[in-house]
Each structure stands twice: as C-alpha cells, then as structure tokens.
Amino acid sequence: MAQCNLQANKERCTCTYEPCSRKGKCCECITYHRKYGELPGCLFPPEIERTYDRSIARFIACNSRA
C-alpha cells in the first residue's frame, strides 16, 4: 500500500478552514465528511468551497451546470 505524504497533501489541500486538524490527512477528511453526509472541500470549485456548504446536493448542483 502506498504511504501518505502528509506534507505534499497539505500543500495541495484547497480547504479554507484553517483550524482543521485533518488538513493533509485525506483518509480522515473523507471519513469525517462522509459521517455528516458531506464531501470534502477539495471536490468543490473555490467559490463554493468557501461557503462551507459541502452537501452532496450542492456538489451535484455545481457540477450539473453545462
């Protein structure tokens, strides 16, 4: 199994929630958001991610624009 590169993940992380303890820990982030019926912020465009609306409905709405 591949090892997680925490520093590289942190550098690529687009989450704007600064006190987040899961920054760079993608497995923990996905598990956390899934628990609440959400998706991680990195899956959203920057302008949507900043709203902290990480609902699946919002993800579908922002990705269904053609």
**Quantity of strands, as a count:** 0
Count of helical segments? 4
| Fraction of helical residues | 40-55%
Low-confidence stretches: none
Overall structural domain count: 1
In terms of DSSP E residues, the strand content is under 5%
Pfam families: DUF6485
Organism: Moorella mulderi DSM 14980
Protein name: Cytosolic protein
Can you characterise this structure?
- With 66 residues, the chain is mostly helical.
- The chain has one domain (7-12, 20-63).
- 44% of the residues lie in helices and 0% in strands.
- The longest helix is centred in the middle third of the chain and has 10 residues, at 26-35.
- The termini are far apart.
- The mean pLDDT is 90.
- It comes from Moorella mulderi DSM 14980.
- This is Cytosolic protein.
- Pfam families: DUF6485.
What are the SSEs and their pairings?
Layout: H1 6-12, H2 26-35, H3 46-49, H4 56-63
Summary, kept brief:
By secondary structure, this protein is mostly helical.
What are the main properties of this structure?
single chain, 66 residues, 44% helix, Cytosolic protein
